[in-house]
């Protein structure tokens, strides 16, 4: 159902470096790069995550209550993605660990303040 999620950025180069390194942990690579819009994914027909400078020319701001969840297939992968985010300068929003029965996640904010998590079920 979800085709892609777009996050605003005020620094394309910094955000691109962050997401190139972070999303490679999930096997994703750049599928589109139009200078002011970059999208990463794992292949055609799969959901993508994108960054962009706002079309209206105003400063990108974060959405309060908005979060992008990056699905993984194991706790080890959640740990690896969260660790990579921290290495890349992300801000901790809740360390990795169980969050109720059958849900394991770690929460962080990217350099622009957008909230993400890496999670797995089981």
Describe this structure in words.
- The chain is α/β, with parallel strands linked by helices and about 120 residues long.
- It has one domain (about 5-55, about 65-120): 2,3-Dihydroxybiphenyl 1,2-Dioxygenase, domain 1 (Roll), CATH 3.10.180.10.
- It has helices spanning about 10-25, 75-85, and strands spanning about 5-10, 30-35, 35-40, 50, 65-70, 90-100, 105-110, 115-120.
- A 4-stranded mixed β-sheet has the order 1-4-3-2, with helices on one face. Strands 5-8-7-6 form a 4-stranded mixed β-sheet.
Could you say which overall geometry the principal axes of the C-alpha atoms support?
globular
Question: What is the distance, rounded to the nearest whole angstrom, between the alpha carbons of the first and last residues?
Answer: 22 Å
Instruction: Tally the beta strands.
Output: 8
Based on the coordinates given, report the CATH architecture: Roll
CATH topology: 2,3-Dihydroxybiphenyl 1,2-Dioxygenase, domain 1
CATH superfamily: 2,3-Dihydroxybiphenyl 1,2-Dioxygenase, domain 1
User: What's the arrangement of strands in the largest beta sheet?
Assistant: 1-4-3-2
Which percent band covers the strand fraction? Answer: 35-45%
Q: Summarize the biggest pleated sheet.
A: 4 strands, mixed
The rounded Rg comes to: 14 Å
Strand and helix order? EHEEEEHEEE
User: Which blocks of ≥5 consecutive residues have pLDDT under 50?
Assistant: none
